[in-house]
Amino acid sequence: MKKSFLLFCLCLSISLVAQKERPKIGLALSGGGAKGIAHIGVLRVLEDAGIRPDYITGTSIGSIMGGLYAIGYSVEDMERIAIELDWAYYFNDELKRTDLPIEERFNSDRYQLKLGIEDGAIQLPKGFIQGQKICLLLSQLTFPVHGVYDFDKFKIPFRCVATDAENGKPVVLKSGSLAKAMRASMSLPSVFEPMELDGRLLIDGGVVRNLPVIEAIDMGADIVIAVDITSPLYDKEGLASLVQVLEQTSSYKLTESVALQKQLADVVISPNIDGIGTLDFDRGEDLLVLGQEAAKAMLPEILSLINHGDKLHTENVEIPKSCMVCNVQLSGVEGKRKNAIANLMQMRSTKEYSIEVIEKRIKQLFGSQFFRDAYYELTEGEEGYDLKIDAALKSGEYLQLSANYDSDLKAALLMNATLRNRGLSGSKIWADFKLSENPMLAAYYQVYTTSQPNFGVHIGGKLNHYPVDFYNEKGVVEESTKQFHYDLRMDLFTSFNNSSLLKIGIGLEQFSQRQAVFESDSEAVRQSQSVSYLSFLRDTYDRQQFPREGSYLSITSKVAIAGRLTYPTDLVERGTLNRFDKHARLQFSKLFPLGERLAIEWYNDAGGVLFKNKEEAYNHLQLFYLGRSIPEEYSYVEFVGLDYMELPVSSYWFSGVRLRAEVKENIYGSLLFNYGQYKAKAYDRIIEGLFEAIPEQDGNILGAGLELGFVSPLGPGRLSAEYNLKESRVNFALHLGYLF
Questions:
Q1: Is the pTM of this model over 0.85?
Q2: Which SS3 state, helix, strand or coil, does residue 547 take?
Q3: Using an 8 Å Cβ cutoff, are 233 and 251 in contact?
Q4: Contact 402, 418 (CB under 8 A)
Q5: How far is CA 268 from the centre of its chain?
Q6: What strands, in cross-sheet order, belong to the sheet with 690-694?
Q7: Tens of pLDDT, residues 530-557
Q8: Do 60 and 504 touch, CB atoms closer than 8 A?
């Protein structure tokens, strides 16, 4: 018995000594953008060798890779994320049009430059990317530790490093939301907006501590394995451009800091990442291999320093596709904004929601333009999950600019001011001014609820100016003049969801034709009328130009309540227009994907004008014009094969198909064909100051075309060659930039 007791004590003491002698391992992962995928390759080799760190620290991309591993992600999980994730999608703030409220969708795909307005002053952006989609990604990836705010309670204790933008000192993040900590650590200056966290404005930790070795030591590590993917300084031959010189001058402090941290590390693994850039996420598989190769080369040195076990196996992290949401909690906003979030989210307690739906609802917050970012957490309770949303506000006020060129409307510069919550809560003031030889001024004030379905009031006006061409029977322009369209409207509207909008309203409008903006003496004809109108819109296209999915339906009708038509040239007032003259148009199109890069778009259009008094002659201001469309002028209809305003009609219908191929990323080629019929009632027009009676005509129209186009950060572009199959005529059109 005595011997057994002594043997037990001896074994216990040996075990305690062995445990005491086992060194604590720290793993420090540096920043470096896409090159951080190499960290996963290093983790693969360490796991295979039975080496598990006791502490992990990370900076920038290292904070993401290190953080995921610390909360239980397996190497397999991380490899899958690195290869399959569409990194380019998350590194911009562009939302799908379908994530925008339909009443805001008009302003998307319109402006090239957006400057925020804060407290009445224009604010230059603090970074090119606000990171709205990044915060949703990080919220989803950190699901395993939602509700865990002490980083020491992760499966592996963790720290990440950011930089205080105010004083340039490192900030070690060890508690709070892991998603927010990662976002702060990766806030690369000028690329991502700084992250405001706990009263401090934080930027990328790589500015002062790109390789956080000292933080691992401070956590208690006896041995630190450092993985460095920092790009070296350029040599003299490498400094070949202004960009490289600027990059070099901003890298001296970073390089010096990394060198000091390397001296503190026991082992430094440096993957050979020459020739791979910060944004080369498409090189993921190469980077995994490079990480493994570098770790294997240093493995003997690592094994000489530490005890290790058998090959490690970790369980894969499971993020549920859906969950029962029992309670929704909102933070970061108060009062009416809190109610606005609840209305926009439209989420009820004790209901099953998919993660995809939750994130789509949060994107709708971003689409409202009132929220800078929003993080979410799902914490498990007895009967389901509590959904916590932490949102940060922004003013939603902007000064916006855009430029374009159109072969028919010529070059233009567009300036816009958008203000919110002026006068009434939930209101929006919007004003556009187009500087061009065909100028335009438009403004409106609207206020609407944030509920679904929502309700609102819209009051606005427009002064538009565009060229008018008169053709002879051979399709040659006989005379050109200018048309002015003045429009003042008030309507009530409701949107049932993000894709459908119903409007009903009244308005005053005037059409006139004259040669110059300020020369009323040159006026040839003027029509003034009061109208009532009704319109319905359903738009699910993912983008306005070259959509990849969705459909479009627009129904518009207008009834003239009273009006007057005047021809000042003969000093004869032609009388009062009949009441209840009607104008209507229907548009429908749908996209049918045929593969990843091929699609068919089927489009249809029909419209007509109907006078109550059938004996009255039509005038050309009432007609539809087939040929090219004019933005925001619904009487001007795009028909492939006809030139600008070539065919005035009183009624028409046509159907067409567009076969479009994406020949290269964001570069498109299309074949188009459309067929239809039209009727043109007899009407009067003025040519060279004289009345000309145009007889009634009808017939078929047939056209085909070839179109080349592209989508770029500055907007889309289109070059088309069109052929009128009936008249054997060719015309060309070019448009560069957004439509306005």
A1: no
A2: coil
A3: yes
A4: no
A5: 40
A6: 618-619, 683-687, 690-694
A7: 999 999 999 999 888 899 899 999 999 9
A8: no
